[in-house]
């Protein structure tokens, strides 16, 4: 299992558009066989900050995700919305309810 | 729903003890009625860094958690293991599979 937290900071005027694009991407990502969980969460107190919580069943699944049309559409759609480059951190589970 | 990510950086010699204490706390926290998810994850490439991924069903549940014996035991047990003070960030869901 590979867990990736993608930290995103968007321009204030892009918050709604980012939410919409990310909901669409997350819905489709949740349908990928290699993805156990693909959540989108928004920071309390600063709505311009989001985290994508991505839980992959394998390393290969992370690459497969980047090959999907929905990821590529999301990536291109949100590119201009960033207030700063997004960053991602990889984790491995110590204890998780994701199977 | 209230999502809290607690970022923890422990001293290198405390990694295993922190894992053990946190697994015990997470197991018991997952049994709280107000908690939908309580995961512990460890950063790839830097095993001294952890995130506790806490998903509460309500604001009240966050307070109830702090009243439990297992939380208080964990808090006291890990206090001396920190390399720096831990920090927490609150989020609300945009799209999540937690119910």
SSE diagram, text form:
Two copies of one chain form a homodimer.
Chain A: E1 2-9, H1 15-29, E2 35-43, E3 49-56, H2 59-66, H3 69-78, E4 87-95
Antiparallel strand pairs in A: 1-3, 1-4, 2-3
Domain count of chain A: the total is 1
Instruction: Give the helices and strands of chain A as they follow along the chain.
Output: EHEEHHE
Largest sheet of chain A: 4 strands, antiparallel
- Proportion of strand residues of chain A: 25-35%
Helix content of chain A: 25-40%
Summarize the structure.
Chain A has 99 residues and is of the alpha+beta class. The first copy, chain A, is built from 3 helices and 4 strands.
Task: Give keywords.
homodimer; 99 residues; alpha+beta; Alpha-Beta Plaits; 4-stranded antiparallel sheet; 4 strands; globular
Describe the protein's architecture and organization.
The structure is a homodimer of 99-residue chains. Chain A starts with a strand and ends with a strand. In chain A, helix 1 (15-29) packs antiparallel against helix 3 (69-78). Chain A has a 4-stranded antiparallel sheet with strand order 2-3-1-4, covered by helices on one side. Helix content of chain A is 33%, strand content 34%. The model of chain A has no long low-confidence stretch (mean pLDDT 97). By secondary structure, chain A is of the alpha+beta class. At the A-B interface, strand 1, helix 1, strand 2, strand 3 and strand 4 of A face strand 1, helix 1, strand 2, strand 3 and strand 4 of B. Strand 4 (87-95) of chain A pairs antiparallel with strand 2 of chain B.
